[in-house]
# Entry
Amino acid sequence: MSTALLAACGAEGKPELHWYVNPDGVDTFETYADTCSTDEYDISVEQLPSSATDQRVQLARRLAAEDSSTDLMNLDPVFVAEFANAGWLAEVPEETAEEIMGSVEGQGSYLAGAAETVIWDDTVYALPQWANTQVLWYRKSLAEAAGLDMTQPVTWQQIIDAAATEGGSVGVQANRYEGYVVWLNALIQGAGGEIVGNTEAGRDAEVELDSDAGRAAAGVVQALADSDAAQPDLSVSNEGTVLGPMWTDPGEFMVNWTFVYATYRDTVGQPGGPADEQAFEDLGWARYPATVEGEESRPPIGGIHIGVGAYSDHPDHAAEAAACVTSTQAQVDLALNNGLMPSTEEAYEEVADSGEFPEDLIDLYRTSVDTGGPRPKSAFYPLISNAVQDQWHSPASVDPDRTPQRSADFLRAVLSGEELL
Amino acid sequence: MTGAHVATAPTGGAVDSDRTRAENSLGRRLVLPAVVLMLLVTAFPMLRAIWLSTFDYSLTAPDERSFVGLSNYWTALTDDLFWQTTGITVFYMVFTVAVELVIGFAFAMVMHRVIFARGVVRTSILIPYGIITVVSGFAWQFAFSSTNGFVNGWLPFIGDDFNWFGESMPAIVAICVSEIWKTTPFMSLLLLAGLAQVSEDMLEAAKVDGATWWQRLFKVILPNMRAAIMVAVLFRALDAYRIFDNIFVMTNGAQDTASISFLTYRQTIEQFQLGLGSALSVLLFLSVLLVAYLIVKLFRVDLAAARQEG
# Structure
């Protein structure tokens, strides 16, 4: 009998927790899987596909089948509401949950922007591990030639005009995919609006696209698509394709995630990277551009949260392991090894002290996460995202007079199940 | 003679002996487990899809599941997107099969007549078919890319930075090229089998009678391989109607390139709308049946004849 039980628990009689990770920073995840394994359990790392959509589908297929071996998982912030609503995520232990709840009000150790994305229906369902955000990357020489004062907040219109007059370009993510919704959401929030409000009402959420904010966002998309500053592959551009034009003279203004700095630093002298250290010095960064002059921008929030599967055979071990792999030291290591920025104040302090990144860049990241805007939190997020992509793609077809209103009607019909998508 | 006929193929109850009946009954009982298993495996998912299609059901909002009867079918059939994707799918099917028929026939002739390096020629024609569709989709996506592809450089009448995936028509052309490149060898293989059935004597006789090459092609070769052509068209058309991989890889359905299979995938897998997605998959199943029926009826394909001749 005892041998049978032992055999059921694995060869060494110790349960094995499976941790599904996205492919960024796998080496650090593996180190922490080892470090956080204890005498009572081992943690093994399983890799998910690289695109967020594929990660979501793979996890959802496991969880929908009530897979008991999905113990820990890396979740993109937009999956949390959806997965929690489906009953696939275990709640975070009380003490940590209170800490995270408090952080939203600015009274905890987590960055408010990151803490806000792990809460659904007043319950905390995941632990923020690293928090991503977008900033404006640009060539200092290009901004200087165009006479832009980058110490002050700039608007989209300003950078489009500046790039166009100097023969440069503006890099955005406008392929028909989630990255395009990230951009559109930031544009709309930057004008004080939302794609949808009251998202907890599920299918009855209020669609708010048809608003001044929606029209302002459409105006920016149209201005870029019609401008000489648009890149030739605008309608299929993504985080990777926009990296190239930075080092082809005269360069570009580009909105992109935090990985950019480390990428360019590590490709000095290589194809696609800056020619030499001096060229790399020409790389500038500033706060995400404003949609409307005078109104503060709302930079996109990304990153990864660690969730515990609701069907795990070892929920207590998994909760303990989740706390361990999101520890301050783990977050600092992820930032230093992989350029993935932390989600807690303490870890940020340590990363800033390490001297690996310019101090003003670290400050910029931190304020961007804290004042950024999340994408809609809804159990129907994929419907919302796909409906927006459907009506706003391609960028050249966007018209402020028609697109916001048409996409609002379409989104309402899609949410109520009256229209296909 | 008659006795042997009765023993091997009983035609009615009147002539069946007790022994034949007992043997038939034993036969039925022996295959019963296999039939039940088959039904469980094949019929269960279909019945479940039909059942699910009567619900408004999202996987991520299990509490909001509700019975809606046939309303999902109504939603699908009255939606412009459904008909638009069906139209695009039919276009993919007709266009790729037509082009493949012509190129495939030319390849079949080459494979049939080639005298030297026969193995090498045949193998090189068949290679694309051995490549996984997703891989060929990626290969052609890179080929058509405006930044690192070769297609723009090779075509003198378009600019070097032309974005094939930026608009609907060029994107559909790119998808069709990938599809045609991948499956033409299959078409030519089926046609080669048909070509092998055309009697050399008839061709010789036509030549002696003074028929030109074109006359021999249209009066002797093509009529004699009609069954093979029709089977090839039927197989490829049904295959083309389910087009999915190339679209998934090359455009992910953007620029109105989505087919009906892709639409079904997006509803069910990407958006977890199980009710609407199931209704679409039932409609997809019915439309494949309809396409098969139309081809068999319109072109009078005689599958039995094709099998006997082959």
